């Protein structure tokens, strides 16, 4: 289906028995855009299918998007998002987790492309009370999506310490690796764990113990390439010890980097559960969190 920008893309049709169900499907497609392009096309309170037709995608969906000028990328995201929702619609845990990630990003969010090291170290951000609370709540919501997928460390359910000394509890980490593998997820899939700006309480106490330094590091950019399972363990620590419950000294040290790290782990897991190939969900290149987008399908 051609758009006014000259991009050919398949037409996406939503078949639903009611307007309410069609809107629900569109809401999930909108949320799935976060996985592929890092943004949604509709605001939370403006997700509805036009009454005159249910075939609003991708043509009007792309044209109404604030990113319409990047129509090739937008169209690609729509197609991938439609496929993702179609493939996972009967998996309630995935739909619930996707909704939780969406609401996490609604609370606080920074586009992944803004995390390119070429833009600096995220030193210039608002540290006043309301943004900090938004970071904390958004982290808690994103981590709840990880729990919805059943990928949280078992220690949080068994009351077992996640750390012994300064090392991960072997029993906890091995059980998590085994559980991820049982879902068809490689626990050693490489992800980026960002560390930017001045070192603070969080970067000092909740830094990765595994992986390697990223080759784009310089100045106050100290990113690491770590295995997915460790990203989950770190996310668990930040959720329980920093973001959730009452406000602590560490809570007041939260930055956009901490938020993006946890949301990124959630994104990787959702794409893995949805069957997205590893090559399409890895973050790569010097841009750090720039997505490797797939082309618009032509069949």
Detailed description of the structure:
The chain has 299 residues and is mostly helical. The chain folds into two domains: 1-90, no CATH class; 104-281, no CATH class. It is built from eleven helices and five strands, in the order ααααααββαβαββααα. The strands form two sheets. The protein has a three-stranded antiparallel β-sheet with strand order 3-5-4. A two-stranded antiparallel sheet has the order 1-2. Strand 1 (163-164) and strand 2 form a beta hairpin. It is globular.
Layout of strands and helices, then pairs:
Elements: H1 19-36, H2 59-64, H3 71-88, H4 92-107, H5 129-148, H6 155-158, E1 163-164, E2 167-168, H7 170-182, E3 190-193, H8 201-205, E4 212-213, E5 224-227, H9 228-243, H10 256-273, H11 278-281
Antiparallel strand pairs: 1-2, 3-5, 4-5
């Amino acid at each position: 289906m051609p758009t006014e920008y000259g991009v050919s893309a398949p037409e996406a049709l939503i078949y639903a028995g009611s307007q309410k169900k069609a809107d629900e499907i569109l809401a999930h497609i909108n949320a799935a855009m976060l996985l592929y392009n890092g943004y949604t096309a509709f605001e939370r309170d403006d997700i509805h299918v036009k009454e005159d037709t249910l075939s609003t995608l991708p043509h009007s969906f792309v044209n109404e998007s604030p990113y319409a000028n990047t129509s090739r990328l937008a169209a690609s995201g729509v197609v991938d998002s439609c496929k993702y929702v179609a493939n996972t619609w009967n998996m309630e845990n995935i739909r619930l987790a996707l909704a939780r990630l969406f609401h996490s990003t609604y609370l606080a969010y920074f586009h992944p492309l803004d995390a390119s090291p070429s833009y600096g170290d995220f030193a210039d951000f608002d540290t006043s009370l309301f943004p900090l609370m938004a970071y904390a709540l958004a982290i808690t919501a994103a981590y709840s999506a990880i729990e919805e997928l059943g990928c949280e460390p078992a220690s949080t359910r068994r009351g077992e310490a996640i750390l012994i000394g300064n090392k991960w509890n072997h029993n906890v980490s091995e059980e998590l690796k085994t559980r991820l593998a049982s879902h068809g997820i490689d626990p050693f899939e490489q992800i980026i764990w960002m560390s930017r700006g001045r070192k603070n309480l969080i970067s000092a106490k909740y830094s990765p113990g595994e992986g390697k330094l990223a080759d784009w590091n310089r100045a106050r950019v100290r990113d690491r390439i770590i295995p997915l399972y460790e990203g989950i363990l770190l996310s668990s620590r930040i959720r329980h010890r920093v973001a959730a419950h009452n406000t602590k000294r560490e809570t007041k040290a939260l930055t956009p980097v901490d938020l993006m790290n946890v949301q990124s782990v959630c994104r990787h897991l959702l794409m893995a559960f949805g069957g997205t190939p590893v090559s399409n969900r890895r973050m790569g290149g010097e841009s750090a969190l720039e997505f490797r987008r797939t082309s618009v399908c032509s069949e």
